[in-house]
Amino acid sequence: MEKIYLDHNATTPLHPEVLNAMLPALQDNFGNPSSIHSFGRSARVQLDEAREKVARLIGASSSEIIFTSGGTEANNLALLGVALKDKEKKIITSKTEHPSVLNPCRQLEEQGVEVHYLDVDRFGRIDINNLESQITESTALISLQHANSETGVLQDIKKISELARSNGVLFHTDAVQSVAKIEFDLKDYPVDMLSISAHKFNGPKGVGALFLRKGTPALFAPVSGGSQEKKRRGGTENVAGIIGFGKACEIAIKRVSTLEVSRVAELKDYFYNKVCEMIPGTELFGDMQNSLPNTLNLGFAGVEGDTLLIAMDMEGVAVSTGSACSSGTGLPSPVLQAMGLPDNKINSSIRFSLGCSTTKTELDSVLKTLVKAVSLNNTAISWREN
């Protein structure tokens, strides 16, 4: 049975060049980069080279990159790093953030930190004027994602970061889903902190980074230990993973500067138009124009999303009903709830996230499988109007 993977927002396959770059560090070049002998010095050189590559991908300086275990830790470092320096301060975020932002915010609330959660419109976008009205003298941090993992909808982080800077407030963005999928250069955005994760663009799992702009006040270090990462994140570095991260960034730079992003966007448009043509009642949850070039969140009238996912999986097609980090809760998507969708529509939703390996032939095959699965599993649920 042919297997087709359309869940690239959850994770991506490791690029062969990334694997080849990592192998020497797993086999022969195994030194600890904090050691001063030749083994350690060799590992340190590779670490520094990878840091340069990560910085180059987002238009940063290598000194502004803090390696972490992934996007979740990077988000936690930004939030806790600011809030735990002064619990009397306020944080502003949104109701559609990733759990690695929302859950630390809830923990901070339990410790007395004030957190305001912005509403979003039916497309999943915040209101900039509403954001501005919530900024007070006690606001220390605004944390808003660049792209939503479930819908692909993009926030206007240029305007948001400019607003934050004009008010003397730090701005952090979770860019895990957007970096390497669209062109992005920090020179164009006055962002203070930014989170990225290697496995979202064909790098290894378990490694990511927080960009911390030069001149940003020192953060509290939740992971305290040795002097690694300039004492901002203790623990022996994952050298092999970081080398793979750097190689993935090197590949991504070439990808976003070519026609690859446009090719994926064209495939997304093709797939969406075909689905709407072949399956009456299909509904888009998000915004086709203002979103990632690879992400579609669709609802199918009369079909339960979980049932459809299983039916697709049995035919060899991997899709998702939302964020992988939120799966297994048994609860409706908080992202779609925040967008004002009723539970029956939320429960019908499926996320299709394309990757650089996705082809039109694969999508044509998925279309046939999807039409069959929707037809067989339609329970004629009545959808109420918005």
User: What proportion of the residues form beta strands (DSSP E)?
Assistant: 5-15%
Named at the architecture level, the CATH assignment of the largest domain is 3-Layer(aba) Sandwich
Query: How many DSSP H or I helices?
Result: 13
Overall pLDDT metric: 93
Structural class: alpha/beta
CATH class group of the largest domain: Alpha Beta
CATH homologous superfamily designation of the largest domain: Type I PLP-dependent aspartate aminotransferase-like (Major domain)
Any idea how many domains?
2
Largest sheet: 7 strands, mixed
Give the termini distance in whole angstroms. Answer: 40 Å
Oligomer: single chain
The coarse silhouette is globular
Estimated radius of gyration: 21 Å
Main features:
three-stranded antiparallel sheet, Aspartate Aminotransferase, domain 1, alpha/beta, Aspartate Aminotransferase, domain 2, disordered C terminus
Fold topology:
Layout: E1 4-5, H1 16-27, H2 38-58, E2 65-68, H3 71-83, E3 90-94, H4 99-110, E4 114-118, H5 128-134, E5 139-143, H6 157-166, E6 170-174, E7 193-197, E8 208-212, H7 228-231, H8 239-256, H9 260-278, E9 282-284, E10 295-300, H10 305-314, E11 317-318, H11 334-338, H12 343-346, E12 349-353, H13 360-377
Parallel strand pairs: 1-11, 3-4, 3-5, 5-6, 6-7
Antiparallel strand pairs: 2-8, 7-8, 9-10, 10-12
